[in-house]
Amino acid sequence: MPKVSIIIPTYNRSQRLSEAIDSVIAQTYTNIEIIVIDDGSTDETEEIINSKKASFPILYTKQKNKGVSAARNYGISLASGDYICFLDSDDIWYPQKVQVQLAIMEKTPDIQISQVQEVWMRKGKHVNPMKKHLKPSGDIFIPSLKLCLVSPSAVMIKKTLFTEVGLFDEKMPVCEDYDLWLRISYKYGIYLIHDNLIEKRGGHEDQLSKKYWGMDRFRIYSMEKLLTKKLTYERKEALLSELRIKSTVVHEGARNHNRYFLFLKYRIKSIKYRILHKILWFTSIISTPEYNNKKEDNG
User: Fold this and answer.
1) 3-state class of 69 per DSSP?
2) Is the pLDDT assigned to residue 16 strictly greater than 80?
3) Is 114:141 a contact under the CB 8 Å cutoff?
4) pTM
């Protein structure tokens, strides 16, 4: 039986953490290990963990506050499983999550990463995701440029994949998952399992997305790392287009918030990517056989 390592990063979420751990202990697949990385909590997190250890072994470690990327990466380094799963400490899993996901991945060895569908909850109430948040399956690189289409709590990943694509970028305080999924989807498809097997909870005041202004700044940083990669025309066109759009959004937001340095920085980026996008389009036109044949006829 393959072993599955479940990594739970947490920071001052002791009550919600308790429910998350209970949902893992209740899994129908039992060859699992639970790794909780405490990112410097000052609440009752350690007491909660100690109470859970009486019924299930938990590898618990506490570090200085370094952010969720460092916490997940440390968890990966400690993991002994063949597969890695993440569970955000404010989400919960349904009992068959690991069993269903693992069965599909074991049956289809070419799948390096999969994710399950999710039920969205906001402040205790069920909400339906907007159309733009609907999860695609397979080659999701281009749609993933616009927004994050993979949930950390929903994935199962072969541990060997991290050796190939790298870990979470610890320079990113937010959108670190967006960055990793782009690097993975650049090389591999991300398979969607259509069963609702997790409950994704949001609306908390301590969510990182509420802490940082201009989230697209971090997505731009992530996309810029891909500019040196070998990309098809379609992928490069989509990348440059999205860089232009997001740079425009950030520079307009910076202007409205009187952040003049950021306004200038991202205004320059928006112009740069508009020009590069047009150059790419023009280059594709003059390289077509139709254009060259017409040029020869005119000659």
Assistant:
1) helix
2) yes
3) no
4) 0.91
